[in-house]
Design brief:
With 326 residues, the chain is mainly β. The protein has one helix at residues 25-30, and strands at 11-15, 18-22, 51-56, 60-63, 65-73, 79-83, 93-104, 112-117, 120-131, 139-146, 159-163, 187-198, 203-208, 219-225, 233-244, 259-262, 265-268, 289-299, 302-308, 314-324. The strands form four sheets. It has an eight-stranded antiparallel beta sheet, with no helix packed on it. A five-stranded mixed beta sheet has the order 3-14-19-16-17, with no helix packed on it. Strand 8 (112-117) and strand 9 form a beta hairpin. The longest helix has 6 residues, at 25-30. The protein starts with 10 loop residues before the first strand and ends with a strand.
């Protein structure tokens, strides 16, 4: 998807029960452009891989911190509010990263992309391209935005308004994804905001987000490296977020019972817990975005996550490991 240096801010207004598009000179001027968005026309399906294997080093390693993760699906929408909870008021905000994921007709995303975060224009960088999760488009793209300076330590737990790039090729009606009145050329998948805050207790947070070609529909094996834990056995937290193709239809998730294993020990999916890929970012609809945090055991220099997809097309977007350090 190509954007001419800045995104047009399109205001969503509610009219007759549907979302309409509103263009204003003020918002165009504020974002530095008067041109329309150009959607790439390079179509054709990328051949999806049924199984993937990745070995991933952390993109960020931050000591003496803890994290929270909150997200929202964006299918058939271009704006949403992410409600943050769990950050102790007054704690220093060490890092805040927003992840935005969407699919379109291009195999590769542009190196940079702008969005509006809480009324501020923010430029994000491309961190991964994958295949579209089986919604008749071509590529899927993940962007990371550093919004640390826009999170207030005095009032971190609130709703943050997010507006993504869109034009007339993007469906913004808010319809049921399985019963949309038009054929989309762009599918917004979702956004997740990960906030790290300072703590007085020895701890460490590792963020893994360079997950290229990660879409799968049978099995995934993703090794998360953490050599600093060598020789240790630790109790920690594992957060995942991702785009969910969802094998269900409408309100029926059907076979959304994917099992997850960490170092061969099952931690999600039946019969031990709800699955990571249940689309619970928004229920009952749209069921296409996931954010989950689990308590797990961590041993040694790496942790290997394995997922059984049951035919569902899934795109891991980011993982976070948090653990106390001995």
């Amino acid at each position: 998807m190509r954007y001419d240096r800045a995104v047009l801010c399109l205001l969503c207004v509610l009219a007759a029960g549907a979302v309409a598009l509103a263009w204003t000179p003020d918002t165009r001027a504020a974002l530095g452009t008067s041109q329309a968005l150009e959607i790439g026309k390079s179509g054709g399906m990328i051949e999806p891989r049924p199984s993937v294997e990745l070995t991933v080093a952390p993109s960020f390693v931050i000591e003496n911190a803890r994290h929270v993760a909150n997200g929202e699906p964006l299918r058939n929408r271009a704006s949403e509010g992410v409600q943050v909870s769990g950050v102790p008021v007054g704690r220093e905000i060490v890092k805040a990263l927003l992840y935005y994921n969407f699919s379109d007709l291009k195999e590769k995303g542009e190196p940079e992309l702008p969005i509006l975060f809480d009324g501020h224009k923010v430029i994000g960088e491309l961190v991964a391209d994958s295949a579209d999760p089986c919604w008749k488009l071509t590529g899927n793209h993940t962007y990371r935005f550093d919004v640390t300076d826009l999170i207030s330590a005095a009032n971190p737990n609130r709703e943050y308004a997010i507006t993504t790039p869109f034009d007339l090729d993007t469906v913004t009606t808010g319809e049921d994804p399985w019963n949309t009145s038009v054929e989309p050329k762009v599918n917004n998948e979702g956004v997740t905001l990960i906030i790290l805050y300072a703590t007085d207790e020895p701890s460490m947070v590792l963020i893994y987000d360079e997950l290229p070609d990660s879409m799968f529909f049978e099995r995934a094996r993703i090794e998360l490296q953490h050599p600093m834990f060598s020789g240790m056995s630790l109790k920690g937290l594992l957060t995942m977020t991702g785009a969910d193709g969802q094998t269900g239809r409408g309100h029926d998730t059907m076979v959304a019972g994917e099992r997850g294993y960490l170092d061969s020990v099952q931690f999600s999916g039946p019969p031990v817990a709800p699955c990571d890929w249940d689309g619970s970012g928004r229920l009952p609809l749209s069921q296409l975005w996931d954010v989950h945090t689990r308590i797990v055991d961590l041993d040694g220099e790496s942790s290997t996550i394995e997922y059984e997809a049951n035919g569902d097309c899934l795109v891991p977007v980011a993982f976070v490991i948090e653990t106390p350090v001995r």
